[in-house]
Every structure is written in structure tokens, then in C-alpha cells.
Amino acid sequence: MQLAMIGLGRMGASMVRRLLAKGHECIVHDMQPAAVAALQSDGAIGAASLAELIAKTARPRVVWLMVPAAFVDAEIEQLKSLLAPGDVVIDGGNSYYRDDIRRAEMLRELGMHYIDVGTSGGVAGQGRGYCLMIGGVPEAVERLVPIFAALAPGIDAAPRTHGRSGEAGPEEQGFLHCGPPGAGHFVKMVHNGIEYGLMAAYAEGLGVLRNANVGKCGRDSDAETTPLRNPEFYQYEFKLPEIVELWRRGSVIGSWLLDLTAHALRKDAELAAYSGRVSDSGEGRWTIEAAIDEAVPTPVLSAALYQRFTSRGEAVFANQVLSAMRNEFGGHIEKKSQDAQ
Amino acid sequence: MQLAMIGLGRMGASMVRRLLAKGHECIVHDMQPAAVAALQSDGAIGAASLAELIAKTARPRVVWLMVPAAFVDAEIEQLKSLLAPGDVVIDGGNSYYRDDIRRAEMLRELGMHYIDVGTSGGVAGQGRGYCLMIGGVPEAVERLVPIFAALAPGIDAAPRTHGRSGEAGPEEQGFLHCGPPGAGHFVKMVHNGIEYGLMAAYAEGLGVLRNANVGKCGRDSDAETTPLRNPEFYQYEFKLPEIVELWRRGSVIGSWLLDLTAHALRKDAELAAYSGRVSDSGEGRWTIEAAIDEAVPTPVLSAALYQRFTSRGEAVFANQVLSAMRNEFGGHIEKKSQDAQ
Amino acid sequence: MQLAMIGLGRMGASMVRRLLAKGHECIVHDMQPAAVAALQSDGAIGAASLAELIAKTARPRVVWLMVPAAFVDAEIEQLKSLLAPGDVVIDGGNSYYRDDIRRAEMLRELGMHYIDVGTSGGVAGQGRGYCLMIGGVPEAVERLVPIFAALAPGIDAAPRTHGRSGEAGPEEQGFLHCGPPGAGHFVKMVHNGIEYGLMAAYAEGLGVLRNANVGKCGRDSDAETTPLRNPEFYQYEFKLPEIVELWRRGSVIGSWLLDLTAHALRKDAELAAYSGRVSDSGEGRWTIEAAIDEAVPTPVLSAALYQRFTSRGEAVFANQVLSAMRNEFGGHIEKKSQDAQ
Amino acid sequence: MQLAMIGLGRMGASMVRRLLAKGHECIVHDMQPAAVAALQSDGAIGAASLAELIAKTARPRVVWLMVPAAFVDAEIEQLKSLLAPGDVVIDGGNSYYRDDIRRAEMLRELGMHYIDVGTSGGVAGQGRGYCLMIGGVPEAVERLVPIFAALAPGIDAAPRTHGRSGEAGPEEQGFLHCGPPGAGHFVKMVHNGIEYGLMAAYAEGLGVLRNANVGKCGRDSDAETTPLRNPEFYQYEFKLPEIVELWRRGSVIGSWLLDLTAHALRKDAELAAYSGRVSDSGEGRWTIEAAIDEAVPTPVLSAALYQRFTSRGEAVFANQVLSAMRNEFGGHIEKKSQDAQ
Q: In what residue span(s) does the 6-phosphogluconate dehydrogenase C-terminal domain sit (chains A, B, C, D) (predicted)?
């Protein structure tokens, strides 16, 4: 099939390469000419402008957007006048699913289709395949199955679930039509919410292992600090790279995220390249907001999100309030040194 | 009554002054001679050593320890050989209740009594009175009622609870024999666990008010940052000192901690004197450990404790793990600047 | 002054009674005629319909709505055609502040004013006064100061904050113009978010005290249950009504919520009248959503909210997922009995 | 090699079968004769008593305990008089690492060795292999490498971590000598703590997906219930079995736990066989206690643990306190029906 791709960043470019490798034709555009040129040399057809991209694409067109969520509306606004009835616009980025509902309605009135595709797999997806969570009306989604199947990892990417037999459903190949417009990004949103929780679970556990030697360090003893009661139980010097590698085989907590962590720790057990300021890109927040609207308790997913906020200094004022209160009722002066407990 | 006080820090000194003011006789000792001298000028009898303190105190003695929890065992070890059967040792500091159980048993074998008194009220207690949570055997506790009554705030410190009438029980005066050895510090431990939770609730809420102007600040829009969808809803510039003052009258969330916060914010709405490194002195930790032993869920109290750990940099490694994972799967580079979202 | 009150439920009726007692004239309406009649006998002027209410009120009118948040828009829709330019509509209920912004703009276009008043104090407010958090344009708010001052508790409701002197600002009397439309309900929203956190802190702590006797109960020991390692440390039978009463005087955690808890436990230490299904009325949710929009971590306030969701059975499916996983990897069969640990 | 196994429950029996299949000789004992007989028919040598087991095992003996943690000390007490210097006792169950330290010291004084092995893999381990986290002195651990290697999954169980080359270390085969006595169970403890967090992350996310249809259900609107503001955004009927299957291929959140969840949901999308009472077996609790001793914040792991406590009704009293407070300040009556929000 033929597909027009807008946005050739990390994700867009690697998806195009996977599609090309599977025999699909890709016309590509990006604001940065170098990104276009790089893919041209890999076999894509370049376009210097949106207009050129659309002109080079045959009707009914399939236009895939792979741009930051904040820019999707502006792109669609431009595309509206370039596209024709029957064309399909796909947003494969990290849009809020509520925007999908609005956009699908807007394009539907113009006779065009809008499909939202939550895309997971990261930069490894070019070789490994992408997990695709798809929302939209059935007729548009069905037309694109060859594209989705090419991007998805395929059934061999995981052992078949015991009890499943016969022909593999699309979900076993790694793509799924989850429901009407927005359904794809809703599922992707929750996917990312879960991802935050999983990541935090590993990170917290590794933190506990790393500090299992605190019994070797002296700790202050004063009215504001409780001494460690049993230093003899905290004398371990654990080698995190080996432990994480160990858990990859046979343990209950094996996962792809663990594989990645093993790789990162293999390179540097101290992770000194990182300062620990952790971004969040929206889905974790929206997951919590959906949970609250639904009255579903999500303490783990929330804690993971707040951990990220806090890593960026967003709790400082609240902590100043705590220190001020302590000073008010107890005359406690803030400890300044790193070893304050 | 006569009472020997060991430890003349913020709490010990102010308690002695309250006892003196109520007509009790206090013999006092501290490692710092200046602290002893200061109280002598207020009417206490000074002692330059433990031995002198004990020699100056009439049998059956009442010796009150007001020293950091880490030093209590050493003090008792010294006192053991100086005291006589029938004497009472009181630990009014922040000991772990399990230590009380052990100490009470040890002194019991010597014919002495041990009483644990959880003391709340902070530096304001000299005038306001202290809330005393008491553990020990009844015969020892009962003997000390005049001391407890003098230290406690008295019934007028709060409106009488609707439905209570007749003679005021000790709990209405501000002291209570909570149970056998350790009971006092167990109740004080939970008191402080609750205190952490209350403080955090206010601090978080004030943080939300303070940031209600984020709609006025630009926020980055890129693949790693979600834009603020509705900046028009975050245009408020709230005056925290006024709002906290407001809540002191008639609201559901009025409290003494709120009174203190109003005072702190009145002095400096920015709390610039504080950096936000928040200590914890043990009780919050022990409360969680008790909750876990009891299988009682304490998500709020735990969150409050962790907030303090995190304020002191204890989450940095976990956050580095998160950044490393994000780099592994998404090629995400950590944002360094303060405004990274 | 004259004020028209719509909605004579628990809150509306008691506010009218306070206003009448302070010499204001109240015209009142409610869908339930009995509610109107009750207040007429207390000195209010009754109205059988909205039209009658408005007709009996002199221009420029002050119309206070005290109805469930879900009905405010419908009321305003009806009022729009009955009111005249210069009239003021006040929403004193628990509206979402974003609705206030919309409503204020709509009424502004008609020459009318809209004021949002977050009202705290509960059913005790009739005698104790209400804490009023006010949003709106200054000219409308200023006109109503006599009403606000009558409803508010007044400066004597709390000791003056150290450092404040001279004439008392409105915040010291218990009402405050917090900012433009929505500001009142924003502050009230956060007030309630804090309230949830405070309540949960007390509730969790009391749970820990109540279970301090678990060492007396046998606990299963099998592959799925960890035995209690130190039953000797959990032998306490704490009397919660006495302890809560104790904390009311001199402790750091004294508060109005604690006063109320003392009253409830005084009536029944087992709280047997309650099953523990806890409602939430919106503000707690909105506080978390605001925190997330602002990227302010609120782990304590969130935990308190989720506790309420969970109390209503909203975590059951997630828990079934956990049980299913445990069965899958460990062959664990769910324990059914109450004493399963 | 020859190994004596005590305890032939789910885990012990399947480990023996794996060892037999790999050519090791196993002498086996269990309190239940049928369990012994079953393994005899699979090629193990049965023993009707501890004494017989030890008599049939050649010195230096290797005795592996696979019994509930609560029974390990009693077993060791019996074994002490039956074993000889140079013999090794292995605890492969879920002991608290502090017990390991004590036991290792006790056996060391008798000239015997104690090794603690945290064993992960569940019932699938017989075919898949077990992940073994090992603590003990090097000379004892090294002697047992053939046993560990037979139980472990081997290097082919996971793709080799990028950057690793040459001969595979033991951690790449699935077993690791983590440190001195207790180190194995410490690492296993944290492993399980992480496991709780991972499980909860999935469970919460699935809960959010399952309730994405709440916009179709009416919700009460009264003073105690906030209406759902945007029912149009919650109209999805997600098919959880398909979505979980989808995530198994190419997504960031793929894991063995997800594989198991896909299997469970494949069998019954409603998980109707489970009521949602979730046990915890100790490690999750100890992980939190270690974290607190180390001052490492673990909000996610704690939330996961508390979720389990709450699932068993352990929050009911705290919730009754909340309801009582609400009744006190607002006259709120508890809602009883299932649809109360």
C-alpha cells in the first residue's frame, strides 16, 4: 500500500523504514529537510511541503501524522483543504483521546476519516514491530489492515497464550481495532499509565537494594533523627547489574522494561549520566483523570506520576510549608547537610 | 511534688518552668552547665552531675528523662546504680514503645518503676500545657497524677465535648493513662503519624493554590511535554496568608497546625527561610511499621512520610532508573532546565 | 439587607436562620413547601415559586442559590428571564469553579453579576458561623459585605494570629474575596481536598490504634500468610474515645475535625451505625485534577480520595485481577474467610 | 549430585521433578505420605521421616527445605541433631532475611552451612526453570553450583543483553550468589515487593479500561454526589482479553505477568471465579519495612501492599470513622446502595 507520513522524528522515521522494508510505498515530509533526505536515501519518496506530499499521494489517501500532540490540530487544519473525501488521516502520536473524538467528527463532516493509533514500542520498534491500538470507524480501519500488519510485530513475537488456537486474531499479531474514535488513544493512555507504574515499581525496588548498605554508614542521633535500630541487617553491597540480569530469567518480574534496565545498568551501574529529572508526556496524567471520572482507585499509577512531578522540584513549596510548621510547633531548624535524616 | 528532670533542651526546660510555676519542686541536670544555670535562675535546684541530681532528690524519687531517644538507654544504665527500689523513671521523649517494654521489665526486676510519657505540644506547651499519653503500671502512674495534671493543659483548653458531663476525667484535662508499659509512646507514635498526614494535607493543598496561576506561564510543547489544555482556568493569584487566616474561622479544616501555618505565612508568604528539607524523627516510620504488622492500610500516613524522605534527596537513584529506562525505550534525553515539564 | 434564598436544605435553611438572627430580611423558596413553611415560622418571607420570590425581592436583587451543584445551571437558566440588570446571583453550593467562570461571563453579558461563594462550616454553621470563600468582580462583592459579615463567624472565633494587629481584615472575620469569578469555589475545592486528607489521616491512625491488640489473636501460618513476628508488641486494648478526647487538649493534632470525632466516638466507640461506605462530593476529585494540571504532587490528597472510592467497592475488579494473577503464577487459591491474612 | 528435599508442596515437588529430569538424585520427605509416594513414582527416593531422609543421604549432605516460612525454624531444630559438620542446609522458601542471618550463625557454630535461596518462578518453574537468588558463604554456595544450574532456566531463557559477550555469568543462567547469609532472601524480598507493584499497575489500568463505559450508566445527582461532567467521553466497551493479548507483542509493557493475565482473561473475561480478596505472604511487608529503615521512598510498592490489605476488609474501621465525621459536620447519612457515588 501507499502511505504518506508527516513527522520523521525518532518514531516516524523508524516506522517508515519498517514499512519500506515490508514493501510499502512511503511518501514522507518533515519540517526538517535533512530528515526527509535521510529517508529518501532509504527508499522513501520525499516531499518538501504538505502540498507536495498530498499531491504525490494517490486517492483515497492515507496520511499518517507522527508529530508532537500539541501540533496535530494545526497539521489537520492545513490538511483539511488539501485532502479529498474518502481520504484517511491517522494520528499515531500521543494525542488525548478527547481530541480524537472531536477531530473524527470534524473530518467526518468533510467526508474524510480519522483514525487514532496509539503506538507503543519505542525506538526498538523498527526491528521489533509496534504495538498498535486503533480507534475509528470500521470501514476506515479495515482498509488499512495491510499497513497495521506490517507495522505490528506479528504473532511470533510472543509465545501463543495457552488455550488460543486456530487462526491468529489481529490482537495476536500486535494490532487491534479497540473501538470508535478515541478508543485507540484511550487504550494507549492507559497503557502508558500502567507503564509509569511498572517503571516506578522497578525503580523503587532497586532503590531499596542499593541502600541495603546503610548499616555501614553512621547516622546522626539527635532529637530530630531516629537512629537506625539494626545496622547489622543493612550490611549488603548488592550488584544491581547482576541482580537485574538475574531476574530476566525465570523470575515472576521478567519484562521488556526489565530487559532495558539490565542494558542500562550494564553500561553504568551508577547511572551517572542521569540526574533523575523525569518528564511525563501526558498519558499518565490523563489516565488518572479518567480514573477519577470513573471513580476507579489508582493509587499506584498516581504515586508513579507524582514521583515524576516531584523529581522536577514541584514539591518544594509544600516541603517548605512542612518545614515552616515544624519550626512553628517544635522550634525545629531545617537540617541543611546531605546526611540529614 | 518533687521531680528530677534530666535534659533541659527546648522541651525539658519549658516543662520545668511550667512545673515550677505550678508550685512543684524541680531538681535539674543537663550536660550543658549553662542550661542548668538558666533554670536555677528561674527557681529550679541545679545539679552538676547525675549523682548530685539523685542525691538531692528525696525517695521515692521521680526522675524524668527529656533527652533524645538515642540516649535514653545510656541514661537509664547510669541511673540504675544510683536509684533505689520504689523510685520511678519517666521517659518523656520520643522513644520507640518497644524499648519501653524492655526497660520497664528491666527496672521492674530492680524494684523500680518505668513510665513512658508521650509528650505533645511543642515549645508552646509551657504556656499552653502538654498533652500527655502515659504508659505504665497503675500504682506508679497514679502516684504522679499531680505532676501530670500540672503539665497538662486542663479542661478549659477546649470546649467540653457535647454529651460529657459531671467530673472531668483525666483525658479531659489533657493526660491519660493509656495502658501498660509502652502504651504511652505507642499512642504518641500514632499521634505523630497522624501529625505527618495532617501536615502533608495542608502542604499539598497550599501547593495547589500557589500554582493556580500556571495558565499565565508558557509551557513547552514537544514530544515529551503535554501542553496545559486549559490555561484560562489557571489564572488565579491567590494570597496564601489571607486564605489560611480565613480558614481559621468557621471552616471544617480549622486546627492548631493551621493556626501555626497562618503565623508562618503571615511572617513571610514565600517561606523563603526554608529550603524544604524535612526531617522525620522516627514516630512516623514506626507508625507505618505497626500498621504493616497489623495489616492496617495507611496510604495517607505513608505518603506523608515518603514525601519527607524524598524532600531530602532519597529518591534520586530511583529517578535515575526512570530516566535510564526512558532513554532505553524512547531515546528520551533528560531535560535539565528548571522549567522542564 | 435583603436576600433571596433558593434551596432550604440542611445548609440553606441554617444560613437563613443565621441571617434572620442578625437582622437581615430573607425571602425564601424551595421545591418542598414544608421547607418554606418551616422558615416562615422563623421569620422569613416565603415564596411558592421562583417568580414569586423574585417579585417579592427589591432591586438590585441578591439571590443566593443553595442547591446541589447539578441543579445550579437549571436554576440560573430560569432566573435569567426573571432578573434585571444590576441583580446579583450567588452560588453558595459546591459548584466546579469552571462553571462559575462560564456563568459569570453569561450573566455579565446580561448586565447581571455572579458571585461564587465556597461555604464551609456544615450544619454547625448556624451558630458557629460559616467560612466564606468568595469569587467575583469587586463591585458586586463589596456590595454584599454586610451579608458576608453576618454569615461569617467573626474575629472572636479564633485567637488572633500573633503579629496581626489593628483593624481586622475580612479574612480575620471569616470571609474573603479570593479573586475573580471561580476563585471562591477554587479555594473551597482545595479546602475540601485538604479536608479529605485530614480526615483520612485521623481515620488511618485510629485504625492503627484499634488493631494494636492483634498480638492476642492467632494468625494463620501457611505458605500464603506471614505470621506476626512479635505478638508481644501488639497486646494493647486502647480506648479510642478517651484517646481522641485526650488529644483535644495540648496536642499538635487538635482540630475541629478531632472535636467531632471525639463526639462521635463518645456516642459509640464502635461506630456501629456506620458501614464505612464513604461518599465524595466532587471537590476532592477536582482538587486532584487541578493538581495534575499544575503538575503539583498530591499523594496524600489522592490517597484519601481513593480510599473513598475503594470503600464503595470500586477496586473489586482490580483485586480480582490480582487474585487471577496469583492463581496463574503460584496456583494460589483465594482465601475466603474473614481471618485470611 | 545428590540432594535431600524436605517439603513437597507445589514448589518443592516441581523442583524435585526438574532436578530428577536433569539427572540429579533426590531423596524426599514430606509430612504427607502421598506426596512422597507421588515423587517416588517419578524416580525420587522416598523417606518416611526426617531421620530416614538424613540416613539415606551421603555426607557432606545437601538438605533443601521447601516449607512455609513459619515452619523453617522447627525443621532446622530437628535437623541440627541429625546432621554432621560440613553438611549444608538450604532454605528455599520465603523466609525473612533476618532469620537467615541468625540461622547461618547458629549452624556455623556447629560446623554446618546455611544457604538462603530466594526462589522465583512459581508452578511454571518445573519446565521454565527457577530464578535463584542465593545468600551464604562462598565455599558452601560454590559447591552447589550444579544444583543451582539445573534448577535455573539457563541462558536461552531470554535474549542476551546487548553488550554482554563471552562466557555467560551465573546471573545470565538464572542463579546468582548475591552476598552473605540473608542476601538471597533480601533480594527475593525486594523482587516480591516489585512484583506487588507491577501486579497493581496492571490491575489498576485494567480497572480504568473496564469502567470506560460509565458514561452509559446514569449517576445520581444530589448534594453528596458529583455528576459525571462528560459522559460522552466514557462510552467505550473495551474487550480486556483482546487488549491484554495485544499488549503482549511490541508494547512497552510486555511481561510474564501480562502473559499470565492474558491467559486468565482468555479463560474468563469477567474473572468471576475470584472475589478479590488478595493475600500477601510477607515479602511485600518486609520490603516496605526495609525501605523505611533505609529512608527510601516506596510509594508505589506501599500502595500495592495496602490495596491487598484493603481488599480483605482491613480498612473498614477507618472508613467508619470517615462516615462518622461526615455525619458530624454535614449531617451526611451514609449511602447504602451499590450505585452510591
A: 184-336
Chain B nearest-CA residue for D317: B296
From the DSSP assignment, how many helices (H) and strands (E) are in chain D? 15, 8
Q: Which tens digits make up the pLDDT trace of D175-213?
A: 999 999 999 999 999 999 999 999 999 999 999 999 999
Residue tagged 521478567 (cell numbers): A254
Measure the CA–CA gap between B45 and D230, rounded to whole angstroms.
Answer: 72
Is D301 in contact with A232 (Cβ distance < 8 A)? no
Distance from CA of B226 to the nearest CA of D (A): 19
Which residues of chain A lie closer than 8 angstroms to B322, CB-CB?
199-200, 203, 276, 278, 307-308, 311
> For residue D134, which amino acid is it?
I
Instruction: For C317, name the nearest residue in chain D, comparing CA atoms only.
Output: D207
Q: Residues C69, D226: contact at Cβ < 8 Å? A: yes
- Is the Cβ of D240 closer than 8 Å to some Cβ of chain C? no
Please indicate whether residue D123 or residue A116 has the higher confidence score (pLDDT).
A116
Closest by Cβ to B315, choosing from A311, A313, A318: A311
Residues of A with a catalytic annotation lie at 188, 195
Residue A186 pLDDT exceeds 60: yes
> For every one of its 341 residues, what pLDDT tens digit does chain B have, with 9 covering 90 and above?
999 999 999 999 999 999 999 999 999 999 999 999 999 999 999 999 999 999 999 999 999 999 998 899 999 999 999 999 999 999 999 999 999 999 999 999 999 999 999 999 887 899 999 999 999 999 999 999 999 999 999 999 999 999 999 999 999 999 999 999 999 999 999 999 999 999 999 999 999 999 999 999 876 555 566 778 899 999 999 999 999 999 999 999 999 999 999 999 999 999 999 999 999 989 999 999 999 999 999 999 999 999 999 999 999 999 999 999 999 998 888 876 544 33
| Catalytic-residue membership of C105 | no
DSSP of B204-235: HHHHHHHTTTGGGS----BTTBPPPS-GGG--
Q: Which alpha helices (H) appear in C175-255, and where do they start and end?
A: 183-210, 240-247
* pLDDT at C339 (0 to 100): 41
Q: What is the pLDDT of residues C76-119, one digit of tens each?
A: 999 999 999 999 999 999 999 999 999 999 999 999 999 999 99
B141, B177 Cβ separation under 8 angstroms: yes
Residues in chain B: 341
Q: Is the Cα torsion angle B215, B218, B221, B226 positive or negative in sign?
A: negative
The x, y and z cell numbers of residue C294, run together, are 499544575
- Distance of CA A71 to CAs A46, A76, A107, A187, B225, Å? 21, 9, 17, 21, 12
Three-state DSSP at B40 gives helix
Please measure the distance between the N-terminal and C-terminal CA atoms of chain D and give it in whole angstroms. Answer: 62
Provide the 8-state DSSP code for C237.
-
Residues of C in contact with D278 (CB under 8 A): 319, 322-323, 326, 334
Q: Considering only residues 170 to 189 of chain A, which have any Cβ-Cβ distance to chain D shorter than 8 Å?
A: 171-176, 178-180, 182-183, 186-187
Determine contact, residues B117/B134, Cβ cutoff 8 Å.
yes
Q: Grid coordinates in use for B52?
A: 548530685
Q: Which residues on chain A are in Cβ contact (under 8 Å) with D204?
A: 193-194, 197, 291, 296-301
Closest C-alpha among D274, B4, B31, B30 to residue C322: D274
CB contact under 8 A, D329 and B252: yes
Q: Which residues in chain D (113-152) have CB-CB distances under 8 A to chain A? A: 120-122, 125, 128-133, 152
Q: Kindly indicate the confidence band of residue A299, based on its pLDDT and cuts at 50, 70 and 90.
A: very high
Q: Is A314 on the interface with C (CB under 8 A)?
A: yes
What is the four-CA torsion angle of D15, D17, D21, D25, rounded to 10 degrees? 80
Selection from A309, B289, B299, B294 nearest residue D302 by Cα: B299
Chains with ≥3 Cβ pairs under 8 A against D? Answer: A, B, C
Threshold 0.80, pTM exceeds: yes
What single DSSP character describes residue C175? E
